[in-house]
Write a structure and sequence with these properties.
The complex is a heterodimer.
Chain A (H helix, E strand, L loop, with lengths): L2 E8 L2 H17 L2 E7 L5 H12 L5 E7 L4 H9 L3 E6 L8 H8 L9 E5 L16 E7 L6 H4 L1 H5 L3 E5 L11 H11 L4 E4 L8 H18 L2
Parallel strand pairs in A: 2-5, 2-6, 3-4, 3-5, 6-7, 7-8
Helix pairs in contact in A: 1-4, 2-3, 2-8
Chain B lengths: L2 H18 L5 E9 L6 H11 L9 E7 L2 E4 L5 E2 L16 E5 L3 E8 L1
Parallel strand pairs in B: 1-2
Antiparallel strand pairs in B: 1-6, 3-4, 3-5
Helix pairs in contact in B: 1-2
Classes of the chains: A alpha/beta, B alpha+beta.
Amino acid sequence: MTQNITVIENILNANDRLAEENYARLEAAGVFSINILASPGAGKTSLIEQTLPRLKGKLRVAAIDGDIATSIDSDRAAAAGALAAIQINTGGDCHLDAVMLHGALDKLDLTQFDLLIVENVGNLVCPANFKLGTHKTILVASVPEGDDKPYKYPGTYRGVDVLVINKIDLLPYVNFKMDYFERGVQVLNPGVTAFRTSCTTGEGLDAWVDWLIENAKRYRLSQQ
Amino acid sequence: MHELSITESLLKISLQHAEKAHAKRVTDLHIVIGDLASMVDDSIQFYWEIIAKDTIAEQATLHFRRLPAELQCMTCFEKYPPTDRELVCPKCSGVRARIITGEEFFLESIDVE
C-alpha cells in the first residue's frame, strides 16, 4: 500500500544547520568574517592581495581559501600579509560548504584575529546555495564578464551584502553598460553597498578597505 | 555541479522519513523548485540514479514542480514576472522589487510502500 508522507524540508537544511554552528563559533571568538564569491578570474585573490597590505597594523587577518586544487591562493594570501592562511581543496566540488569551513576553522585559533576572509571557489552559481555562516557575503564582479551577469545569476546577486565591481580600468575597452548592470543589481538587491575598484591601478580600493576596517571595528565594539 | 551535493541531501532526507515510517520502498519524491533557484532537474535526476542505487529509494520516480518567479515592484506595487533580459518593473520602471516566488527549493513529500 502506498502512503504519502509530508516532508516540506528545505533540501539544504543540513548545511544550513552547520552554517549556524560556524556562525556561533565565529561569534564566540569575536572575529568578523566575510565570504568572497566571484566567477573565476574576476579578481578575488587579487583583491585580497591588494587589501591585506592596507590592513597591516590595523586588523589581524586570517584567510581561508577554497579551490578545487592547489594552494596557490593561500600562498598568495600569506605572502600579502595574512597571519594565517588555510587552503581547502574541495577535490572537484564547485563550492565551499559549511562542513568544509567547519574543518578549516578547527585549524585556527580564532581569538587571535580581527578579520577572517574566506575566499570561495570561483563560480557564480553553486556557492550561493551553500551558506557558510560568515557575517557578510561579498561578491566580486568584473567588467570583462559583461553587464548581463545580474540577470543570468540572480541567486548570487540577490544574496550578497557588498558588491565590488572590479577591473574598472578596463571600462573604456569593453562594452559594459554600467547603468544596465546596476539596474539589474538594484532590482535584485536594493540598496546593496557597492564599490568600484581596480586592483591594477588601485582606484577605489581605499573606500573598500575603509568599509572593512569600519565594519570589523564596529563588530568588535558590539562584542564588548 | 552543486546538484550532486543537493541530490545527496535529497536522498538523505527521503531515507530518514522512509525509515521513520518503517517503509520498505520509496516510490516517488515530490520536489518543488523555484525558477530562480538555479537547480537543473535533469542534473538532479542524473545524480539520483547513481547515488540512490542499492538503497530502498533506488526505484523512486522524481517529480519536479516548477514555481515561476514573480516580483513585486516596491514603488507602484505591480506584480510581474521577470524576463531573461529585464528585471525592472514593466509599469513604472521602478528598480526596487521584492521576490514573491521563485526561490523555493524543498522536498514537499514522498510516497512510500
